[in-house]
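Progress against Task 2.4 (sequence-to-structure conversion) is shown through the following example record, which the project officer requested during the mid-term review.
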Amino acid sequence: MIFKAIIHDAEEGGFWAEVPALPGCVTQAESLEELEANLHDAIEGWLLAAEPDTGSPGERVLEIAV
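Structure tokens generated for the chain above:
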């Protein structure tokens, strides 16, 4: 899977990033190289925490057969 991340300069130095397709998936680091590794870990963690039926933590989905 490929996800896009938005990278920001952190006010206190370093960087932080968010993954718009995964609400709440954010991370930070002192360097861009470290940020890339942290993003990989953050995305994996988000996906592991996702509800199996919905793909998103906290969402509820009801399937209706008609």
